[in-house]
Amino acid sequence: MQPWRWLALCLFASALALSGCFGGEEKLTVLAGSEVRDLEPLLDRIASDTGIRLEFEYVGTLEGADRLMSGQIVDLAWFSHAKYLTLLTAVNNRIRAQEKIMLSPVVMGVKESKARAWGWIDAPDVTWRDIADKAAAGELRFAMTNPASSNSGFSALVGVASALAQTGDALRVEEINTEALRRFFAGQVLTAGSSGWLADAYVANQDRIDGLINYESVLLQLNQDNQLAEKLYLIYPKEGIITADYPLLLINPDKREQYQKLVDYLRKPEMQRAIMERTLRRPVNLQVETGDRFPKQVLVELPFPNDVQVLDRLIDGYLDQQRRPAHTVYVLDVSGSMDGNRLRDLRTALLGLTGLDTSLTGQFARFRSREIITMVPFSADVEEVTNFTVDDPTGQGSDMGAIRQAIEDLTAGGGTAIYTALRKAYETVDAAYPTDPQRYYSIVLMSDGENNEGPSYQEFAQWHRSLPPELQNVPVFTILFGDANQGEMSGIAELTGGRLFDAQKEPLSTIFKEIRGYQ
Amino acid sequence: MNRRWLGPLLSALLILGVGAALVISIRNSPIFNPKILVSGLIGSEKEEFFRDERVQRALDRLGIQVRYEKVGSREISEKLRNEPYDFGFPAGVPAAEKIRQDWKLSTQGEDVFFTPMTVATWQPIADLLATNGVARLVEGHYHLEMARFLELVKEGKRWNQLENNQVFDANRSILINSTDIRRSNSAAMYLALASYVANGAAVVQNRTQADALLPLVTELFVKQGLTGYSSEEPFEDYLVMGMGKAPLVMIYESQFLAEAARTDGSIRPEMVLMYPDPAIYTKHVLVPLTENGKRLGEALATDEELRRLAVEYGFRNTESAYFQEFFKSQEVPADLLNVADTPTFEMLEYMIQSIQSSMQ
After folding, report:
1. How far is B155 from chain A (nearest CA, A)?
2. pLDDT tens sequence across A335-378
3. Contact state of B14 with A170 under an 8 Å Cβ cutoff
4. How many CB pairs below 8 Å do chains A and B form together?
5. Host H or E run for residue B211
6. A10 within a domain of the structure (yes/no)
7. What string of DSSP letters covers B30-97?
8. Beta partners for B284?
9. CATH number, domain at A473?
10. Does the distance separating the beta carbons of A299 and B10 come in below 8 Å?
């Protein structure tokens, strides 16, 4: 090759290298709460204006905390708030900087007719106590996410508990008013593991539910979307509220410069306006005119506890004492195809829920006091149906031991009669419901294959439509595992108001924990 | 395509490029411009100052390039162990003393600038406190009567129990939002001030005196619940979330003035800066760990341009005339006469440890 050709090659190579430096986008990984998914449409604009491409990986806050504690490598994290995270020393040590990006208070939306009947329209004195009274009287049935799974439920729990303690200061363990909280949560008839799904579930169930607790932004969006027969009136209770402030967290110290650039960019008036218009969250840059999107009143912010023990006790109290107790039916495929690794994964996932999973998510996802667990293992037919009641709030008692034994005893073999088993699950609920109508009933269906025995999907769907309303409202959370039929599994979830979870993409144990937020 | 000219052309381009790169790198080399890179940890309240391009240019003129990370002032000493840093630049003498003791330094730090502790509030709240005899308008700015304020805290008064309160009907204890006393200097200065007042306008000198007033001053912090780790956090709550979150916030005067000087509308007419009476000053002390750190401290203290730029960020230093001129529209008091003393490092640490133990 002639010398100049070498030179030309060199020049070409250096030009390539240069364009890599100046023209390309830099990717930053973000551990994100599902709440910020609504920013996705803005990511292209952010990338073209800043040269930084944000790549979201969605996890719950507790799951995010688990991952940060276990040292997962990630550049940034972005949840609706970071208060719990900063109270966990091991997580806080990884947070190098945090800056608020947008705001949304967690408030209550009730149907306008109800608000009017109760004199709550334009009434600045409505309190969380008033809401608790209506809930305890059975007049207000509401939806709220599970505080152990979702930040809106968690913020609401902290706010309600602080307000009901009546102290005017940050809540302490001995001030938690269990009885008042139990009255409040008597009205909670729908739960969920995510704020977005809860909003959808409210839409689907609006004929039987009077309101929901969620981010102001989600409630305003519902009112805008024309899916509601009746608009929601937003209540900002007088004792105060907890506001989500969506801090962008710097985790990787080498990305400090990029982080600062992003924060500066996101807090510019143009960007703040774009975020507000798209998400209905309040701007943190007050140069942005908010118009009449948000009420102008002063929102009293409740103090947030300074002690992670208070928060843990609040969640434990909610799960063990205050919420409506759950009755959960597990319909588990133990057909021949489950033999080997699949059955082992299933056992591990279920055993994790009996308290053997000691991660943060595991601790809060375990079976709780007062809960009834029904196991419906099936193959060509339903095998033995067993009921367990959890009494011991520590999770160490003989009740948990019995559940563990039943899980260990699962063996695989035979065909797959999905709908025979699912009908059996509904019959179990039907038998329990008349004597215990206040419970929160739900079904989990895990299968790794096609239905090849008993009734078909169509026959089941037809049968389901013939059920009385209280049974039709029992949701089935379906788990897509192995070679399960995706169409049918998502069909069942849709038919029953449940949700499909994909264990082909995530470990079975993660899925079982995630579903706990919906039970 | 005629390739005969292509080769020489590309060669010529390459030579030009390499030549240009060479010139640039020589101009930046230490032989022509002996520049030092100085890295350190700063309290968050000084970040805006260091980010200003004029500050960077002025430092550049002196051959200094600064790399910093912001942390709570009281955390600086510990976090200096993470990397080989040249300096720590906390917002107060106690935090600087902590670094000097932890690192067994014999050198004094450089007193670069100082600022009084102030309480950011809102016009309706200032008026309400004045009505209740807790605040007083003096020559265009409000004084917060600390002794009277501590009485309210001692009585456990809530906002909705104040007389003639039409403006803030909140069932929350009357408290000043501060930072986390374990991590941040501004909370430590608040403690220094409160302990002085609670001790009958005298600096706390021994544990007996401290033990007598600890139950009261502990409430100031514990009742707040979760607090920010660095002084910018409660101030940001004030700016962004408003009166419902932050009716009263303990901040450095410089934070408010710097924000007001930005004239981007973030300081609105209803925002009011109150001066506690007695007052307390905090000194921003640059503690050098290396020769390079020392050079930065000297530059900030002696270079006139840097001193004047510091004034524009609300810090007080020897440029007092320029300070008054720059903030003429803010009616900033020139001198605060009734000033509380700060307890010794050991006494302050003793009180902080005690408060910390009741937080868990």
Report:
1. 13
2. 999 999 999 999 999 999 999 999 999 999 999 999 999 999 99
3. no
4. 101
5. helix B207-222
6. no
7. TTTS--EEEEEEE-GGGHHHHH-HHHHHHHHHTTEEEEEEE--GGGHHHHGGGTT-SEEE-SSHHHHH
8. B113
9. 3.40.50.410
10. no
| CA end-to-end span of chain A | 72
Instruction: Measure the N-to-C terminal CA separation of chain B; round to a whole number of Å.
Output: 80
Contact A298 B168 (CB under 8 A): yes
- What residues in B contact A97, CB-CB < 8 Å? 70
Residue with the two structure tokens 């169409």: A487
d(CA A136, CA A328): 24
User: Packing angle between helix B93-102 and helix B345-357, nearest 10 degrees?
Assistant: 90
For the domain bounded by B116-281+336-357, which CATH number is listed?
Answer: 3.40.190.10
Distance CA B229, CA A158 (A): 21
Mutate to test the interface with A, among B241, B262, B264, B358 (most CBs of A within 10 A): B241
CA A97 to chain centre: 25
Note whether A362 and A478 are same-domain residues. Answer: yes
- pLDDT score of A267: 95
Q: Three-class SS of residue A11?
A: helix
User: Where are the extended beta strands (E) located within chain B?
Assistant: 36-42, 64-70, 87-89, 110-122, 135-138, 141-145, 249-252, 271-277, 281-288
Q: How many domains does chain A have?
A: 3
* pLDDT at residue B231, as a whole number: 87
Matching residue, tokens 């979150």: B245
| Contact between residue A189 and residue A470 where contact means Cβ atoms under 8 Å apart | no
CB contact under 8 A, B7 and A83: no
Say yes or no: domain B36-114+282-330 is CATH 3.40.190.10.
yes
Q: Do residues B41 and B76 lie in contact, with contact meaning Cβ atoms separated by under 8 Å?
A: yes
Looking up tokens 């022509």, which residue turns up?
B32
| Predicted pLDDT of residue B2 | 54
**Which domain CATH number covers A177?**
3.40.190.10
Distances from the Cα of B94 to the Cαs of B36, B130, B176, B286, in angstroms? 29, 33, 21, 12
Interface confidence (ipTM) of the complex: 0.86
The torsion of the CA quartet A223, A229, A230, A231, rounded to 10 degrees, works out to 0
Nearest CA in chain A to B16: A11
In a shared domain, residues A41 and A151:
no
Range of the domain at A251: 24-102+246-283
